[in-house]
Automatic annotation (TrEMBL):
Listed name of the protein: histidine kinase
GO cellular component, one term: plasma membrane
Organism ancestry: Bacteria, Bacillati, Bacillota, Bacilli, Bacillales
Major site of localization recorded for this protein: membrane
Reaction(s) catalysed (UniProt annotation): ATP + protein L-histidine = ADP + protein N-phospho-L-histidine
Protein backbone atom coordinates (compact mmCIF):
# COMPACT_ATOMS: atom_id res chain seq x y z
CA UNK A 1 0.00 0.00 0.00
CA UNK A 2 1.18 3.45 -0.86
CA UNK A 3 1.06 5.27 2.42
CA UNK A 4 0.49 8.98 2.37
CA UNK A 5 3.05 9.40 5.14
CA UNK A 6 5.68 7.67 2.99
CA UNK A 7 4.89 9.98 0.12
CA UNK A 8 5.05 13.04 2.31
CA UNK A 9 8.27 11.88 3.93
CA UNK A 10 9.75 11.25 0.49
CA UNK A 11 8.88 14.77 -0.70
CA UNK A 12 10.22 16.12 2.55
CA UNK A 13 13.45 14.16 2.21
CA UNK A 14 14.00 15.38 -1.32
CA UNK A 15 13.38 18.98 -0.29
CA UNK A 16 15.66 18.74 2.75
CA UNK A 17 18.38 17.04 0.73
CA UNK A 18 18.37 19.66 -1.97
CA UNK A 19 18.47 22.40 0.63
CA UNK A 20 21.12 20.74 2.75
CA UNK A 21 23.18 19.77 -0.29
CA UNK A 22 23.31 23.33 -1.57
CA UNK A 23 24.08 24.66 1.88
CA UNK A 24 26.86 22.14 2.48
CA UNK A 25 28.40 22.71 -0.91
CA UNK A 26 28.50 26.43 -0.24
CA UNK A 27 29.75 26.15 3.32
CA UNK A 28 32.29 23.41 2.55
CA UNK A 29 33.89 25.36 -0.31
CA UNK A 30 33.92 28.58 1.61
CA UNK A 31 35.43 27.15 4.76
CA UNK A 32 38.16 25.32 2.85
CA UNK A 33 38.90 28.32 0.71
CA UNK A 34 39.21 30.64 3.68
CA UNK A 35 41.43 28.17 5.47
CA UNK A 36 43.79 27.78 2.52
CA UNK A 37 44.03 31.51 2.01
CA UNK A 38 44.88 31.88 5.67
CA UNK A 39 47.67 29.30 5.37
CA UNK A 40 49.16 31.05 2.34
CA UNK A 41 48.94 34.42 3.97
CA UNK A 42 50.69 33.15 7.03
CA UNK A 43 53.66 31.59 5.22
CA UNK A 44 53.89 34.43 2.75
CA UNK A 45 54.09 37.05 5.47
CA UNK A 46 56.63 34.95 7.30
CA UNK A 47 58.74 34.76 4.16
CA UNK A 48 58.39 38.51 3.76
CA UNK A 49 59.52 39.20 7.28
CA UNK A 50 62.62 37.00 6.71
CA UNK A 51 63.24 39.08 3.60
CA UNK A 52 63.08 42.24 5.67
CA UNK A 53 65.56 40.87 8.17
CA UNK A 54 67.92 39.73 5.39
CA UNK A 55 67.74 43.08 3.65
CA UNK A 56 68.36 44.80 6.94
CA UNK A 57 71.46 42.93 7.96
CA UNK A 58 72.62 40.19 5.66
CA UNK A 59 75.14 37.97 7.39
CA UNK A 60 75.86 34.33 8.05
CA UNK A 61 74.62 34.76 11.56
CA UNK A 62 71.33 36.09 10.32
CA UNK A 63 70.99 33.23 7.86
CA UNK A 64 71.67 30.69 10.60
CA UNK A 65 69.36 32.46 12.91
CA UNK A 66 66.48 32.30 10.41
CA UNK A 67 67.13 28.61 9.67
CA UNK A 68 67.24 27.81 13.36
CA UNK A 69 64.05 29.71 14.04
CA UNK A 70 62.12 27.88 11.34
CA UNK A 71 63.41 24.48 12.37
CA UNK A 72 61.36 24.90 15.56
CA UNK A 73 58.10 25.57 13.68
CA UNK A 74 55.71 23.77 11.35
CA UNK A 75 57.10 25.69 8.41
CA UNK A 76 60.43 25.21 6.67
CA UNK A 77 62.59 27.89 5.12
CA UNK A 78 65.08 27.57 2.25
CA UNK A 79 67.24 30.56 1.34
CA UNK A 80 68.94 30.53 -2.07
CA UNK A 81 71.11 32.93 -4.00
CA UNK A 82 70.11 34.64 -7.26
CA UNK A 83 70.72 31.44 -9.22
CA UNK A 84 68.52 29.38 -6.90
CA UNK A 85 71.52 27.68 -5.34
CA UNK A 86 70.65 26.76 -1.76
CA UNK A 87 72.62 28.75 0.85
CA UNK A 88 70.90 27.42 3.94
CA UNK A 89 67.72 25.53 4.89
CA UNK A 90 65.89 24.75 8.13
CA UNK A 91 65.67 21.10 7.15
CA UNK A 92 67.22 18.77 4.66
CA UNK A 93 65.58 19.40 1.28
CA UNK A 94 63.29 16.71 -0.06
CA UNK A 95 63.13 15.82 -3.72
CA UNK A 96 59.82 17.64 -4.09
CA UNK A 97 61.22 20.78 -2.48
CA UNK A 98 64.25 20.77 -4.73
CA UNK A 99 62.11 20.29 -7.84
CA UNK A 100 59.92 23.19 -6.80
CA UNK A 101 63.00 25.42 -6.38
CA UNK A 102 64.44 24.35 -9.72
CA UNK A 103 61.14 24.80 -11.54
CA UNK A 104 60.34 28.21 -10.12
CA UNK A 105 60.60 31.12 -12.56
CA UNK A 106 63.83 33.13 -12.84
CA UNK A 107 62.39 36.51 -11.95
CA UNK A 108 60.30 36.68 -8.81
CA UNK A 109 58.62 39.61 -7.08
CA UNK A 110 59.86 41.18 -3.87
CA UNK A 111 56.44 41.00 -2.26
CA UNK A 112 56.45 37.23 -2.81
CA UNK A 113 54.12 34.79 -4.49
CA UNK A 114 52.61 31.35 -4.09
CA UNK A 115 54.43 28.69 -6.08
CA UNK A 116 52.66 25.57 -4.91
CA UNK A 117 48.94 25.63 -4.13
CA UNK A 118 47.99 22.04 -4.81
CA UNK A 119 47.23 20.93 -1.28
CA UNK A 120 45.41 17.83 -2.42
CA UNK A 121 48.29 16.10 -4.18
CA UNK A 122 51.52 17.78 -3.05
CA UNK A 123 53.23 17.42 0.29
CA UNK A 124 53.94 21.12 0.67
CA UNK A 125 52.36 24.45 0.11
CA UNK A 126 55.05 26.85 -0.92
CA UNK A 127 55.74 30.58 -1.38
CA UNK A 128 58.81 32.48 -2.47
CA UNK A 129 59.96 36.04 -1.76
CA UNK A 130 62.90 37.81 -3.40
CA UNK A 131 65.41 39.92 -1.44
CA UNK A 132 68.18 42.25 -2.56
CA UNK A 133 70.43 44.58 -0.63
CA UNK A 134 73.96 45.81 -1.41
CA UNK A 135 74.74 43.06 -3.93
CA UNK A 136 73.37 40.38 -1.64
CA UNK A 137 70.42 39.01 -3.56
CA UNK A 138 68.47 35.78 -3.39
CA UNK A 139 65.19 34.14 -2.54
CA UNK A 140 63.42 33.04 0.61
CA UNK A 141 61.38 29.88 0.00
CA UNK A 142 58.81 28.99 2.61
CA UNK A 143 57.30 25.49 2.79
CA UNK A 144 54.47 24.22 4.85
CA UNK A 145 53.33 20.64 5.03
CA UNK A 146 49.88 20.14 3.44
CA UNK A 147 49.05 17.23 5.73
CA UNK A 148 47.48 19.23 8.59
CA UNK A 149 45.31 21.03 6.05
CA UNK A 150 44.27 17.75 4.46
CA UNK A 151 43.50 16.34 7.89
CA UNK A 152 41.43 19.37 8.72
CA UNK A 153 39.47 19.08 5.51
CA UNK A 154 38.82 15.38 5.92
CA UNK A 155 37.65 16.10 9.46
CA UNK A 156 35.31 18.73 8.06
CA UNK A 157 33.99 16.22 5.50
CA UNK A 158 33.39 13.83 8.37
CA UNK A 159 31.31 16.48 10.12
CA UNK A 160 29.28 17.12 7.04
CA UNK A 161 28.67 13.39 6.61
CA UNK A 162 27.55 13.18 10.21
CA UNK A 163 25.13 16.05 9.62
CA UNK A 164 23.78 14.20 6.59
CA UNK A 165 23.25 11.00 8.59
CA UNK A 166 21.64 12.97 11.42
CA UNK A 167 19.19 14.57 9.05
CA UNK A 168 18.32 11.12 7.67
CA UNK A 169 17.57 9.93 11.19
CA UNK A 170 15.44 13.00 11.83
CA UNK A 171 13.58 12.34 8.60
CA UNK A 172 12.92 8.77 9.69
CA UNK A 173 11.47 10.13 12.95
CA UNK A 174 9.31 12.56 10.98
CA UNK A 175 8.10 9.65 8.87
CA UNK A 176 7.05 7.71 11.96
CA UNK A 177 5.40 10.80 13.40
CA UNK A 178 3.56 11.53 10.16
CA UNK A 179 2.27 8.01 9.94
CA UNK A 180 1.07 8.29 13.51
CA UNK A 181 -0.77 11.58 13.14
CA UNK A 182 -1.84 11.20 9.52
CA UNK A 183 -1.98 7.70 8.15
CA UNK A 184 -3.37 5.90 11.14
CA UNK A 185 -6.39 8.19 11.61
CA UNK A 186 -7.04 8.00 7.88
CA UNK A 187 -6.97 4.22 7.97
CA UNK A 188 -9.31 4.27 10.96
CA UNK A 189 -11.69 6.48 9.04
CA UNK A 190 -11.52 4.26 5.99
CA UNK A 191 -12.37 1.27 8.16
CA UNK A 192 -15.20 3.25 9.71
CA UNK A 193 -16.72 4.06 6.32
CA UNK A 194 -16.39 0.40 5.32
CA UNK A 195 -18.25 -0.53 8.49
CA UNK A 196 -20.88 2.06 7.59
CA UNK A 197 -21.44 0.57 4.17
CA UNK A 198 -21.86 -2.81 5.83
CA UNK A 199 -24.61 -1.29 7.94
CA UNK A 200 -22.72 -1.04 11.20
CA UNK A 201 -23.43 2.50 12.38
CA UNK A 202 -21.58 2.22 15.68
CA UNK A 203 -18.45 3.92 14.41
CA UNK A 204 -15.81 4.75 16.97
CA UNK A 205 -13.25 7.33 15.89
CA UNK A 206 -10.54 8.90 18.02
CA UNK A 207 -10.88 12.53 18.96
CA UNK A 208 -8.62 14.33 16.51
CA UNK A 209 -8.86 17.98 17.41
CA UNK A 210 -9.96 20.79 15.17
CA UNK A 211 -7.83 20.37 12.07
CA UNK A 212 -9.00 18.97 8.74
CA UNK A 213 -8.60 15.38 9.95
CA UNK A 214 -10.71 16.14 13.01
CA UNK A 215 -13.37 17.72 10.84
CA UNK A 216 -13.37 14.70 8.57
CA UNK A 217 -13.79 12.39 11.55
CA UNK A 218 -16.63 14.55 12.84
CA UNK A 219 -18.30 14.47 9.41
CA UNK A 220 -18.07 10.70 9.33
CA UNK A 221 -19.68 10.52 12.75
CA UNK A 222 -22.49 12.81 11.59
CA UNK A 223 -22.90 10.70 8.47
CA UNK A 224 -23.14 7.57 10.60
CA UNK A 225 -25.81 9.16 12.79
CA UNK A 226 -27.76 10.40 9.76
CA UNK A 227 -27.61 7.00 8.12
CA UNK A 228 -28.78 5.36 11.28
CA UNK A 229 -31.69 7.78 11.56
CA UNK A 230 -32.63 7.23 7.93
CA UNK A 231 -32.51 3.49 8.32
CA UNK A 232 -34.48 3.64 11.52
CA UNK A 233 -37.09 5.93 9.93
CA UNK A 234 -37.35 3.69 6.94
CA UNK A 235 -37.94 0.53 8.94
CA UNK A 236 -40.41 2.36 11.13
CA UNK A 237 -42.18 3.73 8.08
CA UNK A 238 -42.39 0.28 6.52
CA UNK A 239 -43.68 -1.20 9.76
CA UNK A 240 -46.34 1.50 9.99
CA UNK A 241 -47.39 1.02 6.38
CA UNK A 242 -47.78 -2.70 6.87
CA UNK A 243 -49.80 -2.03 9.97
CA UNK A 244 -51.93 0.58 8.18
CA UNK A 245 -52.64 -1.84 5.35
CA UNK A 246 -53.22 -4.80 7.60
CA UNK A 247 -56.03 -3.15 9.60
CA UNK A 248 -58.40 -2.38 6.70
CA UNK A 249 -57.45 -5.63 4.99
CA UNK A 250 -58.38 -7.57 8.13
CA UNK A 251 -61.77 -5.88 8.04
CA UNK A 252 -62.18 -6.67 4.35
CA UNK A 253 -61.26 -10.32 4.92
CA UNK A 254 -63.47 -10.65 8.00
CA UNK A 255 -66.52 -9.08 6.39
CA UNK A 256 -66.02 -11.03 3.17
CA UNK A 257 -66.16 -14.27 5.17
CA UNK A 258 -69.33 -13.11 6.90
CA UNK A 259 -70.91 -11.91 3.65
CA UNK A 260 -70.20 -15.27 2.05
CA UNK A 261 -72.32 -17.11 4.60
CA UNK A 262 -75.49 -18.61 3.12
CA UNK A 263 -77.74 -18.00 6.08
CA UNK A 264 -77.52 -14.18 6.31
CA UNK A 265 -80.19 -11.93 4.94
CA UNK A 266 -79.83 -9.79 1.85
CA UNK A 267 -79.87 -6.55 3.86
CA UNK A 268 -77.12 -7.85 6.15
CA UNK A 269 -75.04 -8.87 3.16
CA UNK A 270 -75.45 -5.37 1.72
CA UNK A 271 -74.34 -3.82 4.98
CA UNK A 272 -71.18 -5.96 5.06
CA UNK A 273 -70.43 -5.26 1.41
CA UNK A 274 -70.71 -1.52 2.11
CA UNK A 275 -68.14 -1.84 4.90
CA UNK A 276 -65.89 -3.78 2.55
CA UNK A 277 -66.31 -1.02 -0.03
CA UNK A 278 -65.41 1.68 2.53
CA UNK A 279 -62.34 -0.15 3.72
CA UNK A 280 -61.22 -0.78 0.15
CA UNK A 281 -61.53 2.95 -0.53
CA UNK A 282 -59.33 3.64 2.48
CA UNK A 283 -56.72 1.24 1.15
CA UNK A 284 -56.84 2.81 -2.31
CA UNK A 285 -56.42 6.33 -0.84
CA UNK A 286 -53.54 5.19 1.32
CA UNK A 287 -51.78 3.58 -1.59
CA UNK A 288 -52.40 6.61 -3.80
CA UNK A 289 -50.93 8.87 -1.15
CA UNK A 290 -47.92 6.64 -0.68
CA UNK A 291 -47.42 6.62 -4.40
CA UNK A 292 -47.64 10.41 -4.40
CA UNK A 293 -44.93 10.62 -1.73
CA UNK A 294 -42.72 8.17 -3.57
CA UNK A 295 -43.02 10.34 -6.67
CA UNK A 296 -42.02 13.45 -4.72
CA UNK A 297 -39.13 11.56 -3.13
CA UNK A 298 -37.65 10.80 -6.48
CA UNK A 299 -35.49 13.63 -7.62
CA UNK A 300 -37.07 13.86 -11.05
CA UNK A 301 -40.25 15.23 -9.54
CA UNK A 302 -40.76 18.62 -11.12
CA UNK A 303 -42.99 21.58 -10.51
CA UNK A 304 -44.66 23.22 -13.51
CA UNK A 305 -44.76 26.88 -12.61
CA UNK A 306 -47.48 29.02 -14.18
CA UNK A 307 -48.72 32.51 -13.63
CA UNK A 308 -51.87 32.27 -11.52
CA UNK A 309 -54.54 34.95 -11.23
CA UNK A 310 -55.36 34.97 -7.56
CA UNK A 311 -59.13 35.54 -7.31
CA UNK A 312 -60.51 33.24 -10.02
CA UNK A 313 -58.16 30.45 -8.99
CA UNK A 314 -59.14 30.46 -5.30
CA UNK A 315 -62.83 31.04 -5.96
CA UNK A 316 -62.94 27.96 -8.16
CA UNK A 317 -61.35 25.75 -5.48
CA UNK A 318 -63.54 27.08 -2.67
CA UNK A 319 -66.63 26.51 -4.81
CA UNK A 320 -65.59 22.91 -5.30
CA UNK A 321 -65.21 22.12 -1.60
CA UNK A 322 -67.97 24.27 -0.07
CA UNK A 323 -70.67 21.54 -0.41
CA UNK A 324 -68.60 19.22 1.76
CA UNK A 325 -68.43 21.88 4.51
CA UNK A 326 -72.16 22.67 4.13
CA UNK A 327 -73.11 19.02 4.53
CA UNK A 328 -71.21 18.93 7.85
CA UNK A 329 -72.92 22.15 8.96
CA UNK A 330 -69.72 24.23 8.76
CA UNK A 331 -68.90 27.55 7.15
CA UNK A 332 -66.08 28.21 4.71
CA UNK A 333 -65.03 31.79 4.05
CA UNK A 334 -62.59 33.03 1.43
CA UNK A 335 -60.92 36.35 2.15
CA UNK A 336 -58.63 37.85 -0.46
CA UNK A 337 -56.73 40.88 0.85
CA UNK A 338 -54.70 41.92 -2.18
CA UNK A 339 -55.23 41.39 -5.85
CA UNK A 340 -52.12 40.12 -7.60
CA UNK A 341 -50.82 37.24 -9.65
CA UNK A 342 -48.07 34.79 -8.63
CA UNK A 343 -46.19 31.77 -9.87
CA UNK A 344 -46.96 28.23 -8.73
CA UNK A 345 -47.90 24.82 -10.07
CA UNK A 346 -51.73 25.12 -10.16
CA UNK A 347 -52.39 21.39 -9.80
CA UNK A 348 -49.94 20.94 -6.91
CA UNK A 349 -51.20 24.06 -5.16
CA UNK A 350 -54.75 22.80 -5.40
CA UNK A 351 -53.58 19.53 -3.89
CA UNK A 352 -52.03 21.49 -0.99
CA UNK A 353 -55.17 23.54 -0.35
CA UNK A 354 -57.47 20.50 -0.63
CA UNK A 355 -55.38 18.55 1.87
CA UNK A 356 -55.42 21.40 4.39
CA UNK A 357 -59.15 22.08 3.99
CA UNK A 358 -59.80 18.36 4.28
CA UNK A 359 -58.07 18.44 7.68
CA UNK A 360 -60.06 21.47 8.83
CA UNK A 361 -63.21 19.67 7.75
CA UNK A 362 -62.26 16.43 9.50
CA UNK A 363 -61.03 17.94 12.74
CA UNK A 364 -63.71 20.63 13.33
CA UNK A 365 -67.25 20.39 14.74
CA UNK A 366 -70.52 21.46 13.14
CA UNK A 367 -71.20 25.19 13.37
CA UNK A 368 -67.51 26.15 13.23
CA UNK A 369 -66.05 28.45 10.62
CA UNK A 370 -62.96 27.90 8.49
CA UNK A 371 -61.33 30.94 6.90
CA UNK A 372 -59.06 30.91 3.87
CA UNK A 373 -57.01 34.10 3.94
CA UNK A 374 -54.88 35.11 0.95
CA UNK A 375 -52.60 38.12 0.88
CA UNK A 376 -49.31 39.30 -0.47
CA UNK A 377 -46.35 38.63 1.82
CA UNK A 378 -43.77 41.40 2.40
CA UNK A 379 -41.37 39.46 0.20
CA UNK A 380 -43.86 39.78 -2.68
CA UNK A 381 -44.74 36.08 -2.41
CA UNK A 382 -48.22 34.66 -1.92
CA UNK A 383 -49.21 34.03 1.70
CA UNK A 384 -52.07 31.63 2.32
CA UNK A 385 -53.47 31.05 5.81
CA UNK A 386 -56.14 28.53 6.67
CA UNK A 387 -57.73 29.12 10.09
CA UNK A 388 -60.19 26.66 11.60
CA UNK A 389 -62.04 26.45 14.90
CA UNK A 390 -61.48 22.74 15.29
CA UNK A 391 -60.11 20.47 17.99
CA UNK A 392 -56.57 21.80 17.63
CA UNK A 393 -53.30 20.05 18.34
CA UNK A 394 -51.31 20.12 21.57
CA UNK A 395 -47.90 21.75 21.64
CA UNK A 396 -46.11 18.39 22.09
CA UNK A 397 -47.78 16.86 19.06
CA UNK A 398 -47.44 19.89 16.82
CA UNK A 399 -43.89 19.23 15.57
CA UNK A 400 -44.81 15.63 14.71
CA UNK A 401 -47.85 16.08 12.51
CA UNK A 402 -45.70 16.59 9.41
CA UNK A 403 -44.15 13.15 9.88
CA UNK A 404 -45.34 10.44 7.58
CA UNK A 405 -48.21 8.33 8.90
CA UNK A 406 -48.36 10.39 12.10
CA UNK A 407 -51.82 10.96 13.53
CA UNK A 408 -52.65 12.60 16.82
CA UNK A 409 -55.53 10.37 17.72
CA UNK A 410 -55.32 7.18 15.73
CA UNK A 411 -58.88 6.03 16.43
CA UNK A 412 -60.48 9.39 15.73
CA UNK A 413 -58.52 9.92 12.55
CA UNK A 414 -59.35 6.43 11.36
CA UNK A 415 -63.00 7.28 11.75
CA UNK A 416 -62.47 9.84 8.99
CA UNK A 417 -60.34 7.55 6.89
CA UNK A 418 -57.17 9.54 7.67
CA UNK A 419 -53.84 7.85 7.19
CA UNK A 420 -51.49 10.59 8.40
CA UNK A 421 -49.93 11.25 5.02
CA UNK A 422 -51.77 14.47 4.06
CA UNK A 423 -49.53 16.95 5.87
CA UNK A 424 -46.29 15.26 4.86
CA UNK A 425 -47.39 15.47 1.23
CA UNK A 426 -48.30 19.14 1.75
CA UNK A 427 -44.91 19.86 3.27
CA UNK A 428 -43.02 18.15 0.43
CA UNK A 429 -45.06 20.03 -2.17
CA UNK A 430 -44.54 23.39 -0.50
CA UNK A 431 -40.81 22.72 -0.26
CA UNK A 432 -40.70 21.66 -3.89
CA UNK A 433 -42.07 25.14 -4.64
CA UNK A 434 -39.24 26.61 -2.58
CA UNK A 435 -41.88 27.77 -0.11
CA UNK A 436 -42.34 27.74 3.62
CA UNK A 437 -44.97 26.18 5.87
CA UNK A 438 -45.73 26.98 9.50
CA UNK A 439 -48.42 25.87 11.91
CA UNK A 440 -49.99 27.27 15.06
CA UNK A 441 -52.58 25.46 17.10
CA UNK A 442 -54.33 25.42 20.45
CA UNK A 443 -56.38 22.45 21.66
CA UNK A 444 -60.13 23.06 21.50
CA UNK A 445 -59.63 26.50 19.95
CA UNK A 446 -58.40 25.79 16.46
CA UNK A 447 -55.50 25.57 14.11
CA UNK A 448 -53.93 27.99 11.68
CA UNK A 449 -51.54 26.96 8.93
CA UNK A 450 -49.63 29.49 6.82
CA UNK A 451 -47.96 28.76 3.52
CA UNK A 452 -45.71 31.22 1.72
CA UNK A 453 -45.00 30.52 -1.94
N1 LIG B 1 -56.70 21.26 11.26
C1 LIG B 1 -56.37 20.34 12.17
N2 LIG B 1 -56.94 20.34 13.37
C2 LIG B 1 -56.62 19.41 14.29
N3 LIG B 1 -55.76 18.39 14.07
C3 LIG B 1 -55.17 18.32 12.86
C4 LIG B 1 -55.44 19.28 11.86
N4 LIG B 1 -54.73 18.95 10.77
C5 LIG B 1 -54.03 17.83 11.09
N5 LIG B 1 -54.30 17.44 12.34
C6 LIG B 1 -53.72 16.29 13.06
O1 LIG B 1 -52.54 15.95 12.41
C7 LIG B 1 -52.55 14.59 11.95
C8 LIG B 1 -51.84 14.47 10.65
O2 LIG B 1 -52.58 15.10 9.62
P1 LIG B 1 -52.51 14.54 8.16
O3 LIG B 1 -53.28 15.43 7.26
O4 LIG B 1 -51.08 14.34 7.84
O5 LIG B 1 -53.16 13.12 8.28
P2 LIG B 1 -54.66 12.69 8.30
O6 LIG B 1 -55.52 13.86 8.08
O7 LIG B 1 -54.86 11.92 9.53
O8 LIG B 1 -54.72 11.68 7.11
P3 LIG B 1 -54.75 12.01 5.53
O9 LIG B 1 -54.55 13.49 5.40
O10 LIG B 1 -53.60 11.22 5.01
O11 LIG B 1 -56.04 11.54 5.04
C9 LIG B 1 -54.00 14.25 11.87
O12 LIG B 1 -54.19 12.87 12.08
C10 LIG B 1 -54.61 15.08 12.98
O13 LIG B 1 -54.54 14.38 14.19
MG1 LIG C 1 -55.17 15.12 6.35
Amino acid sequence: MNKISTKLAAYFTIAVFIMEGLLMLYLHDNIIDARIQEEFQSILSRGNSHRDVLEDRYSNTTLHHIALMESKTETEVVITDKNHQVIISSKKLTKGMRELINDSPRSLPREGRVIEANWKDMNYLATVTAFEKDGNAGYVYMFKSATPLRNLISKLNGHFLLAGIMSLIILACIHILLSKILTRPLIRMKQATEELSKGNFEVKLPHLGKDELGELAASIKTLANDLETIQHDRSEFLATISHELRTPLTYVLGYTNVALREEISESERKEYLTIIQEESKTIVTLIENLFELAKIDKNNFSIQLEEIQLSPYFQKIIKKITPAFKSEGMNLILSIKDSFSFHADPIRLEQIIMNLLDNSLKYSKAGSTTTVLVRQHVTGKMALTIIDQGIGISAEELPQVFNRLYRVEKSRSREFGGSGLGLSIVKELVEAHGGNISMKSEPNKGTSITIII
